[in-house]
Structures are given as structure tokens and as C-alpha cells.
Amino acid sequence: MIYDVNIALYFTFVNPKFSVFLRKFSKFLFANYNTTNYLLYFGIMNANERKKFRYTDKWRNFRKKIIEEQKVDPVTGSKLTKMCNLHHCDLDEDHYDDISNRDNFVALNLETHKVVHFIFLKSRPKAWRQRIKGLIKILEKMEELNG
Q: Where are the domains of the chain?
């Protein structure tokens, strides 16, 4: 098993995209080890680390600034609620705490955030455009029937 860890270390540094593979197959690679410790070493944030980050002043100030600037949910046009999410457009977990580019974030109300993730993640690769076209057809039909 140590051999697998050494291979994973090598490929993570040689090919950063390997970290995606590592996350997906970490249970296989590190079956007898505490995976969390190894993944943190590689710079991959687990759910607890992401939660801790969201409680930092750095994140809270960044989030507050974007919400104050944006004011409305760009999908629904409704006012952002207190429960709104700051959506990471860059879904690479290695970049979760990188707030250097404001354009990689958008404030979305809770339900909108769920829908955005559902459509994007269930439609890969790049099939989300077709899903949106289907949604537009449904909404147009509803508009036609309901005025």
C-alpha cells in the first residue's frame, strides 16, 4: 500500500489532473489508510476543510461584498436572501479557497444554486445546453397556457 501512496504522490506533482482521479479512487488506493490526511497533504479540501474555510473572515468578507454588489439572483431576478450561496463557477476542489478572481463566483439563492448544480452536473460533457433548451420549451409552453 505504501507503493500506491508513492505512485499517487508522483502523479499528483507531475500531472495536477491526477488529483481528480485520486479523489475518485482514493478509497481504492488508500483502503487501509486515513484518506483525509493524505488528501489534505495533496491540497485537496474535504467537506470539513471547506466548511472551516467558509467560517473564515476572509471568506465571509468576500461573500458579503459580492452579495452587496449583486443584490439579485441572476437566474430568477429575485432579491438575494440571507440563505443565498456564493457559487463557485470553478468546480475544481483544488481551487475552492482561491478567491483571487471575483468573476469565478456568483451569488445564487438556495434553490437556484441547487438547480444550477443539478443541470450542470447531470449533463456532462457540455450537454447542459440541450437541457436548457428543453427547459425553455417547457417554460414557453407554460407561458402560452398561462398568459
A: 2-44, 56-146
